[in-house]
Structures are given as structure tokens and as C-alpha cells.
Design goal:
- The chain is an alpha/beta fold.
- It has two domains: 153 residues, Ribosomal Protein L4, Chain: A; 41 residues, no CATH class.
- Helices cover 34% and strands 15% of the residues.
- Strands 2-1-3-6-4-5 form a six-stranded mixed beta sheet.
- A hairpin with a 5-residue loop joins strand 1 and strand 2.
- Helix 2 packs across helix 3 and helix 4 packs across helix 5.
- The protein is elongated, with a radius of gyration of 27 Å.
- The two termini are 16 Å apart.
Length: 206
């Protein structure tokens, strides 16, 4: 698959040949769903916590005598049916993550890349380098290219000026190639890869 390479100045910088085994695979929605679910599960903090009966600070004294009051018998005030009492089977800190085979994760990334290529939402950038760290200049360049909602993936190292200019732009995310993932690719309308990112992703997924 051949794709035109563009620059930030919206000029053509030749073409690039994309590997069909990575950018042209069958898009499987079930695989994408599995990988996104796995990612979001790992992202959960799992720090939710409710106090049980034994953790409540309070008296264990019997509220009133067992018989003769005409009321229901009442013992410990820390039980779950009392206001301020403990919670029965409440949430405890835990890890929500689960294992997913490496082959499934790799296939999910291929499916995400192929989905963007199939929809015409994939673009290749010559280099993600900015002459200035000013956000205004980069916003104007991206607007001319039509990349208002985009994920830009660069090589192993990101240009400092470009990173500083892009980090305040709403709707634009920037990642190094080692951070490329299914969730971030799918949540943005357009995927922009630099030449370095294409080479690194092909080497990573072959």
C-alpha cells in the first residue's frame, strides 16, 4: 500500500510503501474490543474501599436492655443496618487487570492501524519537528492540514519544540512509537505517523 508523505507546511514529500501485513489486515471488531477492555482495566486504580464492621470506630456497648422496652432487640451499634455502621461485602482495594496474550495485543494494534488506513484517516508526516515552541504556529499548520482531532505518533524520540507546542492543543495527542496503543488510536479521528514511526512500528509488529 502506497501513501503520500506530507510536511507540516502541507507540501508533498514523496511516497511511502506501507506493509500490507500491518496496515492492510482484516479489521476484527472483537479483537479491538478485547484489547481496549484490557487496556482500560489495567488503567483502573482499584483503590475503592469501604469500612467493614470491625473497622468502624464506635462503642460495642449494648444500646438498651434486651427485654421490656417494646422495641426490637439491639446490640452493637456498628452493625450494617445502623447509620454510620460498617458495610457488608463492601469494595476492597484490588487489581482489575487481567492477562491478554501478546499475539492478541499485536493483532489488535494491526487492526487499529488497518482500520484507520481503510477509512482514509491515516496520514504520514515527513517529520514532527517545529521551529518554535509556540502553540499558535502549530495550530495554524494543523488547521491547514485538517488535523483538528488527531493522534500523532513519532519515532523513539519526540522533538522538544514540537512537544511543547502540541501539549496545549485540545483534541491533539502526541506519543512516541513505543507508546502506540489501540485505545488512543481509536479515540482520535485521524492517525498521523511520521516516517520514523512507520519504520519502528513495522519492525515491532513483523
Amino acid at each position: 500500500m502506497k501513501l503520500d508523505v506530507t510536511t507540516l507546511a502541507n507540501e508533498t514529500a514523496g511516497q511511502i510503501d506501507l506493509d500490507d501485513s500491518i496496515f492492510g489486515v482484516e479489521v476484527r471488531r472483537d479483537i479491538l474490543h478485547r484489547v481496549v477492555t484490557w487496556q482500560l482495566a489495567k488503567r483502573r486504580a482499584g483503590t475503592h474501599k469501604a469500612k467493614g464492621r470491625s473497622e468502624i470506630v464506635g462503642t460495642t456497648k449494648k444500646a438498651y436492655r434486651q427485654k421490656g422496652t417494646g422495641r426490637a432487640r439491639r446490640g452493637n451499634l456498628k452493625t450494617n443496618i445502623m447509620r454510620g455502621g460498617g458495610v457488608v461485602h463492601g469494595p476492597l482495594p484490588r487489581d482489575h487487570g487481567f492477562d491478554l496474550p501478546k499475539k492478541v495485543r499485536a493483532l489488535g494494534l494491526k487492526c487499529a492501524l488497518s482500520a484507520k488506513a481503510k477509512d482514509g484517516k491515516l496520514a504520514v508526516l515527513e517529520a514532527a519537528k517545529a521551529e518554535t515552541h509556540k502553540t499558535k504556529s502549530l495550530v495554524e499548520q494543523l488547521a491547514k492540514l485538517g488535523w483538528e482531532n488527531a493522534l500523532i505518533i513519532d519515532g523513539a524520540e519526540i522533538d522538544t519544540q514540537f512537544e511543547r507546542a502540541a501539549r496545549n492543543i485540545e483534541g491533539v495527542d502526541l506519543l512516541p512509537q513505543q507508546g502506540a496503543n489501540v485505545y488512543d488510536i481509536l479515540r482520535r479521528d485521524r492517525l498521523v505517523l511520521t516516517r520514523a514511526a512507520v519504520e519502528a512500528l513495522e519492525a515491532r509488529l513483523k
